[in-house]
Every structure is written in structure tokens, then in C-alpha cells.
């Protein structure tokens, strides 16, 4: 790509005549490249030649959008708030916005009658858009008496436009003398609505019929369907927005629908936050480096002889591989190695549950992210060029993309053994008889999305030969298991592989399975040099593990008083091409299918299907959150039928502490469901609240009941050690720091238990060569592993420290204690130590090996320790767009004592926001085995404008007397019940429950319209 710098507009015109593409801010061009548009060979930089600045209502074409936003221009400045993000607006220009063609601002410029000055003479904007010629020099707009604008995107924060609309009116008295209406944005061609404009002329906005106006606009708007929203929806929101803007009228709405729970006394609660935390609030030790961007991650590492790796992925979602020819790629200068399945010395298969995934595909590809070959080269460009030279011949096979069809007789097989990965069936009592006698029955099918983890650091790292083994430095969630899996693939003893997995820029389950390690390891072994590799965001989107999409059909019955009688559940989950941890996800969903309620008669069946839709697997919530969505909506639906408020319905059916779990297993002590219900009932969230005139308020709740740990069937053990070395109390723990606060929690737990300062503690973690195997950093098991490890080792280390100090100081052991910085005199007022840790010398490690607490049930995978919570949501449902705005979220949690307040709160707030994304906007759309959502630009994770204005988190920290199990894990509970809380709030607002997540705005709009029509 060549960039020319013309000295004048004449020279620029000559360059353009020869094919150079003009570039001003370059932001729209970059957006197009990220979406796959080819980069022009030659560009001419014109931004510096074009007029910049604002004079009256005339704007220079090179004026940055942000400057226009701040200028207070009619309509434009208001509209620009919704165009791109501030950083883009500071670079992007008005000329580029028009040249882009799909700019959001077009309707606003059209209704303001924009006239352009161009190098080809003056032209009206509409004319220029129809036939763009020459360079835009300036844009003049005409003000109106009244105007309005609305952008509807994939989320509230900046995102591609679904549709933008604008109007400008000139008034004569109370009547419209001239109306300009326009739509555009994204795939909608920018256009004025001439028919409706003519109809409006002479009318009084206060008396005209808004329904007639809506109908006219809807008929006139031309908008396409796309994978994200339908044409009908686009026409509808254009009509709603313009009609509401012009008339200020919307149909009347009925009041709230859900009975308000009776007030209760709040349980004992710790309010979590910097202000309320007092001395318990400590800034996390990893935070300053992280917020400054100074934390060195494994993907940041560079060394002089390091090669760059790249992976060749499948060209088809399902195909037989006929041949792989790497000759040309190997011959390319700068290429050091190409590896294929032929280079695998051991087992060409991996997978945490079943080893069904090839490290490099040999005979078949099963999804679009499958790895076929990998290249190590001197630089990224050479490695990418080499990928293009690898010739793979395929024979496409029939696609399996629908999970129900995948399990139908005669379906094409993704794996030779068929498409049923696993099945879980459980029946108890006589469900059919119970349904027959029930007073109320509700049935719905809930659908959940293929959510992407969206971690900031995509999959990657580096691997280098070390002696006669390998040093593997790739972000992961269980180094010892990664080592085991690699040892099988490489036929290399585990002892010869050292795996460093931390620090990680986010995991959420998506780095639990092997990612780039097999390809990188093969390249490092073949070249004998360190090789690095990090997936681009697009490659991570294509190849990375996602949350398993599910459909859950649930039928639930209660008697006339709201007592639950029976439930039938049919779950279907999409595993994608390989199993990974999906069987565990499905089992966990099934284990939670009655939630925290007692249901005597049940009939449940869960099935997991192989398809060609990417790969599913571990993701925070791990099946529990999907099932909780269904269960907690069913409870509200039945409450509505039985005439009960949501809390009363729940209390009537709640588990009794100590009673068996859903599978009949023993459940651990300290159940806090009643306290969580008390907290929900005591909340002020049920009070009426103000929303905008175009919104309907709603309030909802849901309970959380989630098992922690791996369950009864998988091995679930941990090792831990504590020692004094180099003047630091070192905690050796094999867990990983993914941003969840492991390091802070260890600092807090050790300091609290020993009596030293947090700053005396150093954590050695995430390294199989330096820390013991503490098991996986998953399943919310970390909190217990940390607490138990410290509890087991601290007394022993404390005794050794004091004994050694007593000898050195010549004091009696009983007269000493551990204080911040070292060993002090027991009972002394002076905080200064008599002997500093640094002067004490090293003290050998105290070690612990313990099992995560398990239940007594082995017919299926059952959890023993549970966590509890109540999520409450206030929402505002937009009657123009169907968008759901989160006004306030509350999460009341009970997971035992809080180890580190900032980490705990971070887990809860983070989970709530990630759960809000699952609920309202995040889904990787796939069609025919290909990703429709290819990158973050169309993957709508919540931005700052999507998070609620208020979030409030509490912790109920007590344990039952004699409870020996300490803090429970806090990583997942915040996620469990956010979706049903929001769904129940939407039902409060509209009278209907959304059963598809993310909630389609089109469906929510239809719900609110149906309600106002009723
Ligand atoms: C992350 C991101 C988010 C974005 N979000 C939005 C959004 O929400 N809404 C939106 O509308 N846009 C969005 N954009 C696109 C873009 O930023 C804006 O449209 C911006 O106004 C483009 O201005 P620019 O100067 O950077 O254009 P450039 O990229 O330089 O050029 C864009 C096109 O216009 C042509 N061009 C440039 N200047 C002129 C001129 N004076 N006369 C004629 N043709 C010209 C170029 O040849 C090119 O074809 C986004 C971009 C990014 C990267």
C-alpha cells in the first residue's frame, strides 16, 4: 500500500484520476478493511489540503467530527454524540463521513438541506450521494424551527447503525410549512421521505394522527434485512422515532403488572465498595500496572531469535482433506518450518473430557476454525504469505448446523460415532399424573446464545525449546493439565515440559482447553527456536471456544396455592465440532434444572450434539446460568397465574437447608436462600421510578443457586505451599491470575492468617516449574482452594518462623508473634518488628494436599458446596426501539466470608455486566457453518453506555456454626440469575417474558406494542 502526499488539490485530482483513493482521517477506510474490504494499492492524503473549521453554518470538509460535536450546531452536534467513539471522532472528518457513503450522519445532513462545495462545483448532498464525483470542500446546512434525530445501533454504546432517522420542520404558527424527513445509517440507503413530507405540509403536529403518520413512514422507508435485524424492524423503528419526534405522542400504557413483594427485614449484609469498605478495601496489587498498560503478558514477550507463528485454518466447515502440500510454503525465503499432522510424534488428539479434537487435522475438518497446518517464519508478513502457499485439497461434506437435525436419523456425521456427544436423563415421581391434577401449568422454550468470552488478550503466547524439553508460555487455566495434554501430543514426558500460564488478560473459561499450544509446540520443536503467536481478534472470533447455544423446553406445574408439583425439561445443547468441556456444561445445566426449589415430580432429558458450528465449551456460568434463566422465568410465570408476588412464590417452594440436592446428593452447610429472599424483599428497588416518556419501567428478581467445584466425578484436588524466602512470605499456588484477583486474595488470606502485612506476601503462581498443581482455575473453586491452602499451611509456617526467630533473638517462642514486616514482641504496642523477615533467613515450605469438598453421589456429577444470591433489576423498555435499558442492578450474594473485597466486588460487577451482554446483545451469529459475526465491530459487548447507572452489591458473609468449608468461590454467581431478573423485569413492563437471549429488540417492541394495543 502506497500513500501519496499531493501538494495541491490539482495534483490530488491527477492522482485520483490515476486510481489513487483519497484519504482524510482514514477511519472509515480502516473500518472497511477490518470487515474484509481490499486495501487500495495507492492512496492520496487529502485531509491537509481541504478546508478545516466552522464558519456560521458552513463546515470545512476536513473538520473533525468531534469539533463539530462541540460547536453547538443545530441537530448535527446532538447527532454526533452517537457517531463513533470520541477517539474516532477526533480523527474522522465530515468529508470522509459523506465519502464513506454509509455514514450515520446522512439523514441529519439531508434534513438540514446540506449543500456541498466540491472540486467539481456546488452540489446538493442527495445529488452527490447518488453520483459521488470530486472532493468535497465544504458543507453548508440550513437550520429549521424543530428537528430531531435518533440512531439505533446494536447496543447503546457506539456500534454499527441499524437505522438512523432525522427530521427538520419549518413552522408557520402551529402548522408545518416545510417538513424534511430522512433515514439512513449502516445498510439503509440514505434517503428523504418525500411522500410523507408532502403529506405533513400544512398539518398541525399537535392534532395529526400519529398512527396514520407511522403507517405512511413505514410504507415509504426502504430498508434491507440483515443477519442482525429485519427490514420490518427497521421500518418500524423509523416510523416510531419520526412520529414520536414530530407529534410527541405514543399509545397509552397500562401500569405495572407484577405484585410488589411484601417488605422484609434485610439480613446481615456487607455493602461492598471503596467508600463502604473502610480498611477492608485494598487496591489490588496487580491493578496499577494493569491500568497503566505496563503489565507484561505472555503475548508481549519478545526475544532476538524468536520466530513468528501463524496457523492455517480450515477452508470449509465440514470437508474431507484429500491432500496437504507444503512444498511452496517451505521454499519461501524466511520460512523456518511448516508443520502438519505428519509432524505429530504422539497422539493427534486432545480434549479435557474426550480426546476428540485433532492438534492438526489429518483427514477431515469439522469447523471453520480447525487447525490444518502452521508456519514459523522470521516475521508475521512472511508467515502469512507462507500460509497462502500451503495447498490443501478438500472434498466438502454435507453441513450439520442445526442441533436438532444433527440428532435426527440419517443426519450426516460430524464424528464417525454419530452426533450425540452425551445424554443425561433423570425421572422422579410421576410427572404426567402431577401435570394432570395441576391448577396452573406454564410451558416455554428458552433459547440462549453463542456468547464469546471477549477477553482483552486473545489466545497466544510463546514456546521455546529448553534443554531436552519445552518451555510453554501460553495463557491457560490449568498448567498441569495443559502439560498432560501436550505430553500426549508431543510424546514428550511431562517432566520435560514446563508450562507458564499466567498472567492472562482474561479467560472466563475460554482458555481452559488447549488453544495455540499444540501448533506452537510443534513449531518450536521443529525449528529449535522460540516461536510466538497471538490470534488476531478476527481469528479468535473464528476459532475460539464459545458458550454452548442451548434450547430448553420447560413445562412447570403448581397447585392453586403456588406449590410446585411437576416439571418437565428437554434441553438441547450445541457442542460444535468437538466435545471440549461441553459434556460438563450440559450436565451442570441439568443438575440445576429445578433451581433452589423442591419439585417432587420431574422428567428431564438433556442432549448434547456435535455440529459444524465452531466449538462450544467452558464459559463462566457453565450451563447453570442458561438453566436458571428458564427456571426463574417459569417461577414468575406461575406466580402471575397463581396470583402471588415473586418472592412469596419462591418462598413457598424453597429448599429447606440441609435437604438433599436435586440429584439426591448431600449438600454442604450454610445455605442462605431465605436470607437472599429477605434481601430481595427488603430492597428499595420495588418502589416506583421515573423513566423517559418513551420508556416503560419494570422491576424483576431472580434467585441464584449454583454449585461450585468440579463435582463428584472428576478428580478435584489441590496442592499448596507457604514458605519464607528472600525476606518474603511466598505463597506457592498453581492457580492462574486471569484478572479475577487471585494475587490479591492470596495476599489477603496469608496476611490475615499469619498476621503479617499484605506487602510481606509474594505469590508464585501459574507455573508448573515453580508452583504445585492446585487444579484448574475454573468452576468457582479458587476461593476455597486459596482459603484451604492457607489454612492448612499457615499454622505450620507460623510455628517455624517463630521458632527460628526465637533462636536468633534468644527469646521464648511464646513471647513472639508475627507482625507486619517480621517478628515482633507479643503484646507490644510498637508495630516495628524485632526481627525483619529479610533478616530471618529462608524457612522451608509448609505444604498441603487436599481435596475440594465433594458429595456422596456418583451416579451423575453432583456438587456439594453451593453459592446463593438474588439479582434484582430495574429496566426501562423503549417503546420506539424495543431496547431494554438497565436502570439499576442489585446483586445480593452469599458465598461465605469475603477474602478480598475489591476482588470479590470486581467478580460480581464484572459478572453482572458480562451477563447483561449475554441477556441483551451478545451472540456470535453463524450461517452455514460460517461466522456472520466476524469481529468486535458487530459483536455487541456492553460498553459504558450500556451498563446501568446504579449497581449495588452486597455479601452475606456468615457461615453456620461449625461449617468447616470457609469461603466459597465467587467467580460465577454474579452471572447466574441476571438474565431471568431482567426477563422478569421486562415482563413487569410489558406483560410478556422474552424467551430468547439476547432478547431481540424486535420481539420486545412487539410485546410492548401488543400490550398498548390491549
Ligand atoms: C471504530 C469505528 C467506529 C465508527 N463508527 C461510526 C459510526 O458510528 N457512524 C459513522 O457514520 N461512521 C463510523 N465510523 C466511520 C468513520 O469514522 C466516519 O464515517 C468518519 O466520518 C470518516 O471520516 P474520515 O475522514 O476518517 O474518512 P476516510 O476514512 O479518510 O475516508 C472515507 C471515505 O471517504 C472518502 N473521502 C474522504 N474525504 C473525502 C472528501 N473530502 N471528499 C470526498 N470523499 C472523501 C475516502 O476516499 C473514503 O472512501 C467508524 C469508524 C471506526 C473505525
TrEMBL record:
Pfam families given in the database record: Ald_Xan_dh_C (PF01315), CO_deh_flav_C (PF03450), FAD_binding_5 (PF00941), MoCoBD_1 (PF02738), MoCoBD_2 (PF20256)
Domain FAD-binding PCMH-type: start-end pairs: 1-146
Domain of life: Bacteria
SMART domains linked: Ald_Xan_dh_C (SM01008), CO_deh_flav_C (SM01092)
PROSITE patterns (UniProt xref): FAD_PCMH
GO molecular function, one term: oxidoreductase activity
Listed name of the protein: Molybdopterin-dependent oxidoreductase
Amino acid at each position: 500500500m502506497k500513500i501519496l502526499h499531493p501538494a495541491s488539490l490539482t495534483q490530488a485530482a491527477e492522482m485520483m484520476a490515476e486510481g489513487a483513493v483519497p484519504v482524510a482521517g482514514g477511519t472509515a477506510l480502516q473500518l472497511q478493511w477490518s470487515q474484509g474490504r481490499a486495501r487500495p494499492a495507492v492512496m492520496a492524503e487529502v485531509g491537509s489540503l481541504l478546508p478545516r473549521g466552522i464558519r456560521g453554518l458552513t463546515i470545512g470538509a476536513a473538520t473533525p467530527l468531534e469539533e463539530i460535536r462541540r460547536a453547538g450546531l443545530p441537530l448535527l452536534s446532538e447527532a454526533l454524540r452517537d457517531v463513533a467513539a470520541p477517539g474516532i471522532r477526533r480523527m474522522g472528518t465530515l468529508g470522509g463521513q459523506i465519502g464513506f457513503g454509509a455514514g450515520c450522519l446522512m439523514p441529519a445532513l439531508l434534513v438540514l438541506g446540506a449543500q456541498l462545495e466540491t472540486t467539481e462545483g456546488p452540489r446538493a448532498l442527495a445529488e452527490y450521494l447518488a453520483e459521488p464525483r470530486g472532493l468535497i470542500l465544504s458543507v453548508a446546512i440550513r437550520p429549521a424551527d424543530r428537528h430531531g434525530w435518533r440512531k439505533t445501533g446494536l447496543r447503546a454504546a457506539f456500534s454499527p447503525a441499524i437505522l438512523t432517522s432525522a427530521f427538520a420542520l419549518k413552522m408557520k404558527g402551529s402548522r408545518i410549512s416545510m417538513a424534511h424527513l430522512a433515514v439512513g445509517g449502516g445498510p439503509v440507503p440514505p434517503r428523504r421521505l418525500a411522500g410523507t413530507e408532502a403529506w405533513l405540509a400544512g398539518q398541525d403536529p399537535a392534532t395529526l394522527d400519529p398512527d396514520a403518520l407511522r403507517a405512511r413512514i413505514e410504507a415509504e422507508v426502504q430498508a434491507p434485512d440483515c443477519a442482525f435485524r429485519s427490514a420490518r424492524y427497521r421500518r418500524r423503528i423509523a416510523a416510531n422515532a419520526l412520529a414520536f419526534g414530530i407529534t410527541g405522542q405514543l399509545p397509552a400504557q397500562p401500569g405495572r403488572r407484577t405484585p410488589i413483594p411484601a417488605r422484609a427485614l434485610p439480613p446481615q449484609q456487607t455493602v461492598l465498595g471503596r467508600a463502604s469498605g473502610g480498611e477492608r478495601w485494598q487496591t489490588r496489587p496487580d491493578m496499577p500496572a494493569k491500568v497503566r498498560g505496563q503489565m507484561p503478558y505472555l503475548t508481549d514477550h519478545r526475544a532476538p531469535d524468536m520466530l513468528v507463528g501463524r496457523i492455517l485454518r480450515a477452508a470449509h466447515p465440514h470437508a474431507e482433506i484429500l491432500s496437504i502440500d507444503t512444498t511452496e510454503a517451505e521454499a519461501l525465503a524466511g520460512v523456518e518450518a511448516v508443520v502438519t499432522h505428519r509432524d505429530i510424534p504422539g497422539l493427534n488428539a486432545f480434549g479435557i473430557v474426550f480426546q476428540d479434537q485433532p492438534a492438526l487435522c489429518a483427514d477431515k475438518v469439522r469447523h471453520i476454525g480447525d487447525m490444518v497446518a502452521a508456519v514459523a517464519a522470521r516475521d508475521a508478513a512472511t508467515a502469512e504469505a507462507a500460509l497462502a502457499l500451503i495447498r490443501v485439497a478438500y472434498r466438502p461434506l454435507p453441513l450439520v448446523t442445526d442441533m436438532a437435525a444433527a440428532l435426527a436419523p440419517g443426519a450426516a456425521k460430524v464424528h464417525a460415532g454419530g452426533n450425540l456427544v452425551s445424554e443425561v436423563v433423570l425421572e422422579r415421581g410421576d410427572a404426567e399424573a402431577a401435570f394432570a391434577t395441576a391448577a396452573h401449568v406454564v410451558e416455554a422454550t428458552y433459547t440462549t446464545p453463542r456468547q464469546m468470552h471477549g477477553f482483552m488478550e486473545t489466545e497466544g503466547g510463546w514456546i521455546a525449546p529448553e534443554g531436552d524439553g519445552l518451555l510453554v508460555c501460553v495463557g491457560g487455566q490449568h498448567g498441569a493439565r495443559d502439560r498432560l495434554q501436550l505430553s500426549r501430543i508431543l510424546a514428550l514426558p511431562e517432566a520435560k515440559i514446563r508450562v507458564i500460564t499466567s498472567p492472562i488478560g482474561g479467560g472466563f473459561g475460554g482458555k481452559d482447553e488447549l488453544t495455540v499450544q499444540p501448533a506452537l509446540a510443534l513449531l518450536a520443536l521443529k525449528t529449535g527456536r522460540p516461536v510466538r503467536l497471538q490470534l488476531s481478534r478476527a481469528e479468535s472470533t473464528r476459532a475460539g471456544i464459545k458458550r454452548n447455544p442451548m434450547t430448553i423446553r420447560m413445562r412447570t406445574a403448581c397447585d392453586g396455592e403456588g406449590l410446585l408439583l411437576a416439571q418437565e425439561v428437554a434441553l438441547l445443547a450445541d457442542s460444535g465440532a468437538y466435545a471440549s468441556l461441553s459434556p460438563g456444561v450440559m450436565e451442570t445445566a441439568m443438575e440445576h434444572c429445578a433451581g433452589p426449589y423442591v419439585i417432587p415430580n420431574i422428567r428431564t432429558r438433556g442432549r448434547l450434539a456435535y455440529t459444524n458450528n465452531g466449538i462450544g465449551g467452558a464459559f463462566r456460568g457453565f450451563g447453570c446460568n442458561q438453566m436458571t434463566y428458564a427456571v426463574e422465568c417459569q417461577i414468575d410465570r406461575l406466580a402471575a397465574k397463581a396470583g402471588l408476588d415473586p418472592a412469596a412464590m419462591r418462598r413457598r417452594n424453597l429448599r429447606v437447608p440441609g435437604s438433599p440436592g436435586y440429584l439426591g446428593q448431600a449438600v454442604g452447610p450454610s445455605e442462605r436462600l431465605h436470607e437472599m429472599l429477605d434481601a430481595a424483599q427488603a430492597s428499595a428497588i420495588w418502589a416506583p421510578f421515573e423513566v423517559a416518556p418513551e420508556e416503560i419501567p419494570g422491576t424483576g428478581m431472580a434467585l441464584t443457586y449454583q454449585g461450585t467445584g468440579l463435582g463428584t466425578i472428576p478428580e478435584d484436588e489441590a496442592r499448596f505451599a507457604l514458605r519464607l524466602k528472600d525476606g518474603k512470605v511466598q505463597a506457592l499456588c498453581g492457580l492462574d491470575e486471569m484478572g479475577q484477583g487471585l494475587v490479591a486474595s492470596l495476599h489477603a488470606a496469608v496476611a490475615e492468617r499469619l498476621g503479617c502485612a499484605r506487602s510481606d506476601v509474594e505469590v508464585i503462581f501459574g507455573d508448573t516449574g515453580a508452583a504445585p498443581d492446585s487444579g484448574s482455575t475454573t468452576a468457582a473453586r479458587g476461593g476455597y482452594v486459596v482459603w484451604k491452602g492457607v489454612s492448612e499451611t499457615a499454622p505450620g509456617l507460623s510455628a517455624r518462623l517463630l521458632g527460628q526467630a526465637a533462636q536468633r533473638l534468644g527469646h521464648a517462642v511464646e513471647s513472639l508473634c508475627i507482625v507486619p514486616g517480621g517478628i515482633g514482641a507479643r503484646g507490644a504496642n510498637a508495630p516495628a518488628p524485632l526481627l525483619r523477615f529479610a533478616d530471618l533467613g529462608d524457612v522451608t515450605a509448609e505444604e498441603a494436599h487436599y481435596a475440594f469438598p465433594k458429595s456422596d453421589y456418583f451416579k451423575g456429577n453432583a456438587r456439594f458446596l453451593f453459592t446463593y444470591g438474588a439479582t434484582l433489576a430495574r429496566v426501562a423498555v423503549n417503546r420506539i426501539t424495543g431496547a431494554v435499558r438497565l436502570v439499576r442492578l442489585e446483586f445480593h450474594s452469599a458465598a461465605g466470608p469475603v477474602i478480598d473485597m475489591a476482588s470479590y466486588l470486581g467478580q460480581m460487577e464484572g459478572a453482572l455486566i458480562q451477563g447483561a451482554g449475554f441477556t441483551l446483545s451478545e451472540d456470535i451469529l453463524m450461517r452455514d457453518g460460517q461466522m456472520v459475526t466476524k469481529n468486535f465491530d458487530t459483536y455487541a459487548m456492553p460498553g459504558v453506555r450500556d451498563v446501568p447507572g446504579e449497581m449495588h452489591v452486597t455479601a452475606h458473609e456468615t457461615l453456620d456454626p461449625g461449617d468447616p468449608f470457609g469461603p466459597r468461590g465467587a467467580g460465577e454467581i454474579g452471572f447466574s440469575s441476571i438474565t431471568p431478573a431482567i426477563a422478569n423485569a421486562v415482563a413487569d413492563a410489558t406483560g410478556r417474558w422474552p424467551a430468547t437471549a439476547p432478547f431481540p429488540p424486535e420481539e420486545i417492541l412487539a410485546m410492548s406494542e401488543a400490550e398498548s394495543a390491549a
